[in-house]
Fold this sequence. Notes:
- With about 550 residues, the protein is mostly beta strands.
- Helices cover about 5% and strands about 40% of the residues.
- It contains three helices and 40 strands.
- It has a four-stranded antiparallel beta sheet with strand order 1-2-3-4, with no helix packed on it. A four-stranded antiparallel beta sheet has the order 5-6-7-8, with no helix packed on it. A four-stranded antiparallel beta sheet has the order 9-10-11-12, with no helix packed on it.
Amino acid sequence: LSYDPTDPTHQKIFAGVGITSNGAIGPANSAQTRGGTRIGILYSNNGGANWVNMGGSALSGMSVVDVEARDKIILAATFEPQQIDATGAYGLYRSTDSGANFSLVPASDGLPNGAVTSLIGAPDDTTKLYAFVATKGLYASVNSGLNWFLLKSYAGDNYAHIATGPGGAVAVATFNADGIFTGLALSKSFGIAGNWVDLKVPQVNSGKQAAVNLAIAIDPKDTNIVYLAGDAASGSDISLAAYRVVFDPATGDSEYSPLSNLTSVTTPNTAVHADARSFAFLPNGTMVLAEDAGIYLRPNPQGDATWTALNTSALSVREAYALAFDAVSKRLVVAAQDVGTARQVAPGSAEYASVDDGGGDGFNAVINDKTYAKQSISVLYESAQNIGLGALMRWTYNRAGNTATSTSFPFVKGWSGPQYLPFLESDYTESVSGGSMNALPMASKVILNRIDPTRLAFGTNYVYVARDVNAQAQYLTDFTYVSRPNNQPVPGTVSALAYGAGDNVNALLAGGTKSLYMSTTGTWNSLSDVASYAVLPNVETPLGIVFD
Length: 548
């Protein structure tokens, strides 16, 4: 998101449209399952009151990660942060006619071919721009993007985010294709060769999400200070890894101190949620941090301070994956990225309360409000990513919305017993918390049978069905492996799932990578290929399925 600094009214705003979500409703290595249509740029000439599309076919199908405008010249950096190895015509696109037409900046203008991971202008010179070309290096322009030249080479496995400051200051935070932060460099003289210093700073991307969660800024009042934030602090899944790095020109050395979870401050609000997106500064010097949990302010970024959240009823940050309505207690339940599962505190209320303090990515929330409706009881099944990282939760509620019971259905690779859900050992194909292949796929699915909601279906690399007899038992029964012949997994993990049709309670549909499978019996190895789906024109991976 940027504005045109040559517009004195600051009414011209440009928003790059792209896929940068940390969550996915299907295979995590696919950009398609993380967001919607990539349509280029959204443009407003009245401060955001109205928007129009810009970029057309030239930018369609690519993520625009940065936009810079200088009057009639508009530059768009294209790159897939959630699919770094994506192929296509990625690079820096330029329009010289106020966005009517865009074309790839040619190598003859000094910029090599390749995805541009970061694009930014100098705060005190509208003609100066910086662009980082993946696996190539840092390039600069002194004529608003018409011509480019190399400032610093970064050949090999190098990608980066850039920050600029007054007086020609520029900082580069690099990362590799695995999403790990690899280094921080600072120049205070327009990046001229020989005037770069490497700054000391700990790892800020232990979660390997640097492509989307690596924020960098230079202090606008002191260019010896660089701020860096990543995803999660080492040893934590929820606290932000963020540092203030101070360079000493006299010694050429640098020191860092944490900005989140400070031990030197005993007051609350010293830590913020993981997954940074960007920094900005208010005129009075207050730092603004945008990240996956919302927007935070830090009034004294150069010293110890607390954070103030701007998350209010007017700014609700939520990326919903599942939505269910409880017809018994008349409440909505939402499972959402990063914030787990929450229920309305009262029918029609704008306020929600966490169902389970476990948090994480709430992926599944399904309600049986039919079987026990006469007893004024509803049953909620919910889980976070990887099916709760080892447990499916069941909650029962009364008509007043109060919790009646809660039950955990655990599972652990290699463990057996009636209390454990018996997923196949070959189903544990993801690693979490430093383990080795110890988790089910992140976006694994849990649904209820449309006809008989005491029956459940699970979509992982395979498909399973089970039964919850009375919503009181400590174990699920009739747990059955339903998958393709010869124990083959569904290609690319199960992307969509439906269970129970009006004329066949056992009917199952499962989607995979550009494929669809069906079972009419719900029994062992009974999924068969729906061949007519795979031959459809322009077939894609199904993300939603429902029986007529």
